[in-house]
Amino acid sequence: MREESIGRIAKDFLGHEGFQLTEWGGGNLNYLYRVDSTKESYILKYAPPYIRCLGEGYPLSSERLRYEILGLKAANETIPEFAPKLFYVAKEGVVMEYLEGFKLLRQAFIQGEKIPHLAEHLAEMLARFLVKNSFWALNEGERKKLLEQSENSLMRRLSEDYIFTFPFMEHPTNQKNPTSAPSVREIHQDKEWLGAILWLKSRFSTAKEGLLHGDLHTGSLMIKGEQIKMIDFEFSFVGPLSFDLGAILANWLIAYRTHKERGEVGGYSQWLREEMEEFIERFKEQFEFWAGEHGAPQIGIKGYLEALLIEAWGMAGVKIARRILGAAGVEDITSLESPLKEEVERRLLVLSREMTLRAALGIIPIQKGGREAYSWLF
Question: Are 175 and 283 in the same domain?
Answer without folding.
Answer: yes
